[in-house]
Amino acid sequence: MNTIICDTCGHHNKEGTTICEKCGKPLNQDTQKTLLNMRYDGTAIRSKTRNRSIIDKTWNFFSSIKVGVTLIALALIASAIGTIYPQETYIPQTVDPSEHYRDQYGIPGQIYYQLGFHNLYGSLWYMILIALIGISIFIVSIDRGVPLYRALKHQAIKRHPKFLKGQKLYGEYSDYTEEDKQQLLQHLKQRRYKITEKDGHYLAEKNRFSRWGPYVNHLGLIIFLAATLLRFIPSMYVDESMWVREGETEVIPGTNQEYYIENQQFIFEVYGDREEDEIFETALENNGAIVPRHYETKAAIYQDTSDKEVISEPELEEIKRGEIIVNQPIKFDHFHIYQDSYQLNEFQSMSFKLHETEDADEEAILEFTVDLVDPERVYEFDNGYRIELNDYFPDYELSDGRPRTTTNYPRNPGFVFFVYGPDTEEAEVSFLAIGQNLAAGENQYKLSLTDFDVRNVSGLTVRKDLTLPFLGLGAFIFMIGLIQGMYWQHRRVWIHPTADRIYIACHTNKNWFGMKSEYEKITEGTPFTEIVDQENKNE
Amino acid sequence: MDYLSLSGTLLYTAFILYLVAVIFFAATVRDKRQEKQFTFVNKFAITVTSVGFLSQLGYFITRWIAAGHAPVSNMFEFVTFFSMMLVLALIILYAIYKVALLPLFTLPLVLIIIGYASVFPREITPLVPSLQSHWLWIHVTTVALGEAILAISFVAGVIYLIRQIDQQKSTYRTKWLEIVMYSIISTIAFIVVTTTFSLTGYEAEFVYTVEATEDREETQASLIYHLPAIFGKSDAELVTDGRMDALLPAPDWLHGEDAAKKLNTLVWSLAVGLILYLLIRLFARKRVAALIQPSLRRTNPELLDEICYRSIAIGFPVFTLGGLIFASIWAQEAWQRYWGWDPKEVWALITWFFYAIFLHLRLTRGWHGERSAWLAVIGFAIIMFNLIVVNLVFAGLHSYAQ
Questions:
Q1: Residues of A in Cβ contact (< 8 Å) with B76
Q2: Distances (CA, A) of A519 to A93, B92, B236, B317
Q3: Hey, is the C-beta of B303 within 8 angstroms of any chain A C-beta?
Q4: Parent domain of A340
């Protein structure tokens, strides 16, 4: 590798260095007239010096801030496009997306769907874009961070006069005493500058750690992005949902049949029936709809302790009992169970009676109850009557003249009963649903609904996310780096005495206003108060 | 004691005090003395601002007591809180830089924002279960503070642009700056128009038919306009006597029951804004920016540039903490996932991307001065888009604030 030899001190600098590492003399002749470029303290940056192999070229591509910023801008635009129409996860689950976008939003919706924008954030190209940003962050941090760290760690105290003259804030003073200089140093110390000295030259420096801020926050981002990928490792992440009816015990999905949950009670409360709700009266009136105040599932969690090697009935042992409330999931063995949704007053059972069609009093010949979740097919009675449940539609609707069920939940049950009398061979057919009682032909017997039971169903979400601690760590490191880099500034003051005068130069990586006002305070009562902002002078 | 009415009074007091402070800050700018001198008027004006802030803080606390939950749960409450944080951000940045122009431009913006908030229903709303968490105030207050500090960069950026852009001839830059001016005037027009018609009690009811769907029969629904209808729902019929019928049907591609009404309000604001803007142009015979420019001559543009950048440097970490990190923690608890690509979440990410770009361009590529001021203006536009358009137009989990 080529080196640049400083013509003043003879130090061998790496190719690409713009300021001599040892004496601080500007190595690039062009910079003589203008201010020194102090980025990365003039040290050699890999991406600025090597451009030969493919690796160099790739490295240089990703270490460019321009490329990084462009990638972020692309991600910004892409993200915005994704909000034009609702994403697939937010459209009703019962509709076909290919039709939904066209029907709701017309031709633009159709195009949106066909370009795959309805699932933009999960698309490969979006993920690649984010991954490219991650790579860029990683490479740029190594490319700039390492040389900067070395340059600041080994910075020379005694700098070439041209180095000082090339700083934005620079002053030359001839009329001063040793006392003045000592007072200046004293003030610097009071303002918590670290002062180092060599041959009467001084370097006062503070808050160097703030220079590492960007690299720390980039590290946090890399950890965060890597942690999002951990989700794809099996057993790190479980996302299931389930419905549990009051009084029932169900196996918890995603737990390998190991855990069970019992819905002991579902509680649902709305606003408006308590005294303290008076304050919400106007809002509730304007809203019109019912506003839920609170809903929770009183639950018990069981673990199956039976031997898994042999097929056997589960042996349930209670391990936890408590409430599952919105914002307060129940937790066990890395699993979180959340209160998600609910179905109120789902039909549990319906009771019927049989009577003579002609009987005005509808005197019951027999009575029976149908369990709507797991109905029995045949109901036999001592008096010789027999009733068959020929067909059952839990969520009945009429479609093209034929009955069918929309869901498997007993929300609007419909029944086809076959009724056999003690002396009839042929079955009489009856159809019953809420508000409907149809007979096929002239029936001797008629069925009527006498009673029903309802219960609530709790919609729960089962989550296990072992990636959260890593994500949290990444976010935490990111915040630390951000605060470190944004709320502190790295400030340096060089004091360079010559035979008849003293040179003073200041540098800060940002917030020049703050540097200037601090300089004013440092030099209060000394002859060094006037300092020139050379950037403004040149304008 | 009735905390609710007390809280209303305190908010009103704060509004008046900010108004008084603006007048005093205006007096300091006309002052012939040096900017750096911290005159008595300056001190008085900032004291009035601080008292106003305390009064608004009183509004916040008393409303919290009255409601039983942090008053940041609907549009009125959030926007009012945002205005309060804007004052706090202003006090912080004024303490650092002591530039009287900053409050002189920020406080009118605060007044506009409070006015905007008052357009929304002001009653206390009950909290749905997912909002019943301490994270409500932790998340929302941090986001509001972060956005408010970022908004200061917009104010500094606008002052910078008015100060620096050459008004001798018409250029793209002067035109864009006029668009910014016109947007601000239209916001004022929106407040004036809605308040005026609401004071006169204007109400026009339109009835339309909702088509039958699989699980619903055909029904009649009504839409109540509080502004005379320029745009109406295409199939709706006016049923209130003596009110103006819609002049034009809203375009078909607008969806949602309220879309026509929202478009109507938007058109009203833009039209009245345009009239106001043209009136100013007509009387002044100058661009609005050119009208303000002479009074900014004595400010140091470098200092404005620094404030513009510094407020982003301070606000960005606060916004990240509130808008992304606290938001994710709460989303994990309430919605079972830390991130779900809800429009509001996406626009928070877009805001974050944007300011990240700003900081990279500024710190490593040397985008100073005018370029950085324009970016600050765009950044504020994104924040406002997320606050207004995403809440009111996009359907999503955060649109509880309708």
A1: none
A2: 64, 22, 70, 27
A3: yes
A4: 237-344+459-473
